[in-house]
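To: structure subgroup
Subject: Chain for Friday's discussion

All,

I'm putting the inputs and outputs inline so they're searchable in the archive.
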Amino acid sequence: MHDTNSGSCLCGAVAWETSGKPASTYHCHCSMCRKAHGAAFGTYASLPAGLFRWRGGTDTIEDYRSSANLTRSFCSRCGSVVPNFEDDGSCAFVPTGCQDDGPPADYHIFFASRASWAGNSDNHLPSHADWPPGIDETPCPDRDSGPAEEGKVRGSCLCGTVEFRINEPFRAVYNCHCRRCRRARSAVFATNGFTSLDGVEITRGESDMVQYKPPEATYFTQVFCRTCGSKIPRKDPGRSVSVVPLGALDEDPGRGPDCHIFTAYRAKWHRIGDTLSRFDEGPE
């Protein structure tokens, strides 16, 4: 593991650097992290604020108070989750999915809240049902999405401003390890489900959806809530598909990922621990 690690958001407006060894690094499976990242879990390094420094501007950073205990930060231009701090400024929480190099995760937290569709990534690590030993805080409850609708799967952003509905089964679901996905979701990989173009219906908050497309991208676009930064589905007319971040779902889609793709670009510190097929580039 390198003593110094650097990361950035998808658009590069926000960049940072850490030094030394974190107090801990963990995969968090709580429903709030899943929505904020649009992924199966968020991975954070916790370290003293003195070991962290910004390497670029912070003008595009927006904050959202997701609970009494935590303010989450994201880039308002591209939607990537970026580092946030304890209220007293003493500790930094750094999303390591934006980093190619270490540190590796030490354990899982809020594993009891793990998504039903998630695989067994890093299954060799210890897991804790909620907070790890030594942290005496009350877990935040999952947001109630109301009664289910037969034959449909619903989803929403963290603040509830944007809501959507999946009206057909996913054609495919991929765990993508490409650098764009990792920086867009600030996670070790993105889990995306694909439907037809009309398979996703935005039922609330469409005017609050923000899109960011990297200048060099042909198709890749990130869509997120302007208030909380949560990742939400996007429609891709060029390929006649809708792309859904499974972390945004409120209900079980009835299936999990088919395979891992673009594993040639995976984070060096992450070990894939499941038996799904793996492809260095795109799927067959």
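Points worth raising on Friday:
Residues 153-278 form a domain with the Metal Binding Protein, Guanine Nucleotide Exchange Factor; Chain A fold (CATH 2.170.150.70).
The longest strand covers residues 42-48.

D.
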